[in-house]
Amino acid sequence: MRSATSGTPRIRVVTPKQDHGSWEAAVTHASRVSNPVSRFGAQFAALADKVAMGPDDCLIYVARRVAETRQARNRAGWLGGRLVNWMVGEDPEYVRVSGAVLENALTWLGEDVPEDFPRGAELELGFDVAMQLDVDLRAKAKVEGIAK
Question: Is the predicted pLDDT of residue 94 greater than 80, yes or no?
């Protein structure tokens, strides 16, 4: 899917890196595996993003990811913020989501999900696409009485 105005992809599959070629990736990886508690937390978070979530969990997950990207977009307006985004690996133009969670959210919204949908992959949604998904999920939750 490509954006109508820019020609850039609006959804892209993130290819996991096997090596830690960049300094920030090496530091992030080292901090995750150096402490057993943080290693367990990272593994639990990665697993939790792959399991089936209910509608309320999908709503919270997408809203949280959109809010994180909105913060990255706000930081990107100044040099220090761009440095922070670079160090933590945040792209202010894309919202990273799990394929499994996106599939659950789309199914809950009544969208057709293709059979070859990349459920096990990490996906990056264009910020405008993710914002619209967040709005749609909130509207559906309001109709069903999940959210106010």
Answer: yes
